[in-house]
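Can you make up a polypeptide sequence alongside its tokenized fold?
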Amino acid sequence: MTRLKAFRQSQCSAWFERTYGWRISQSSISPILSKQFDHLDSGPASNLSRHPQWPLLETPLWEWLASQKPGPTPSADVIITKAREIWNQIPEYQTLPHPQFSNNWLNGFKRRHAIQIRDREDGVPPPQPQTGRKQVTALKAFRGEFTEDDVYNMDETGLFWRKPPFGVSPAQDLLTTKRENSRVCFMLCTNSTGSDRLPLWVIGHTHTPEALRRVNLKAMDIHWRYHRQAWLTQSIMQEWLLFFYNHVGDRRVLLLLDSHPDHQAAVEATPPPPNVHVQLFPTHTGTPIEQQPINSGISQTIKHYYRRQWLAYIVACKGSPQNPVYTMSLYHTISWINQSWRHDLANAIIYKAFRKSTLMDPQIEFITAPEWLDLRSLYETVTRNNPDGRTVTSLENFIHPVDEDFEDVLNLGGFNVEGEPTLQDMDDAILPTLPEQLVPPAVDAVTGIQTAIRHLAHQPWATATDLQALERMGRMIDRAAGDEHAHIVETIRSPAET
């Protein structure tokens, strides 16, 4: 809004129509730019860092609301009706399922813009009242009883794992379009120093995707679960809680969770042992405490690294006859995410994220988190090579796709209907992957290790321990491959000898 005040009303109106394709009269601009809404530039609403669910809808809806005549704020039903009208005018959203504009969305809209909305007229109960600052103060005081290593946060986050930086192709069928929006859910949990990052839990649509059928997930330290919506459920949360209790053992720890109903129900159904204290973040407090650590830079950084890998994969497949979007598999996804979670995510990012929640003491100034990698060069390389002439998604929308973190992102209610993807479609590569492409031969693995050894042998920073670890791995693979080959030969020869 501060930026709009620098222009004349006619310029603001022209800018708004060019940006959103929706005309707003000059008479409506005056109240929007009046001092009545100055608090949005400097008050609590300006500091809420959580992204709106549909950012291209948010601005025109709010400006329509601000342009209304003085008096009572329109009811929730009126606002939702207007939201549906604006939605139908936004080209970027036309390939997405039409949203239901639930109470959760409405409550978030109210918090972001610090407004009061009359209750919905369809009998839906109003949201819970604000809990006030006392609950926040009590939680911060209780957190002080634990060392930094013993304070944990867990939250789930969605990922559109094969969504490219392009819109829909004119030649694309509905099935392919929806499969490009395939999503999985990751459960991320770490302590406030980053010294203890729990193994990833991944939730997909099906029991075992084809790309993971022969993968040793236990060796990768990844836990796969499934649900038709590819999102966290109470039963999965209960299972995860038992896993967490076992992980921390007898240590006295604090686990912070948001107040999602499935979290609450799972904690009630699976009470923690006496040494584990589970606390839910207060809701509707109007303070930054609502932004829990995982959502304050941790999950965003993981996704940023992932999309760098995804763009690099598309570039590497440039000369291939197959579309990389079609050959992309969930094995690539969990491998890249796991590596980023273990190695790329700096402890300083985790440290700062916990302090953004205001639960932890003020941050130490000299601890600086690394800057995000610049994806623009890779992004431009990919978008320049656009043989299908598809519309190009902006870099911002590619990095932060709409609806990625909302459980009702894809309605798969009508299965086996023409044009609708099945659950297996959503988890499998669009083009079938050959078995030999899924599992490289042992000889290729040994050759790769020998190449890595030669590379390290010429690096001044390499150590004897590094080289010896690779040599042991090469011998282990070679020996396992030899034993398997001997078993096959013996199996072939035995009938002939008989």
User: Anything to note?
Assistant: The longest helix spans residues 464-497. Residues 139 and 267 are 17 Å apart (CA to CA). Residues 4-113 form one domain.
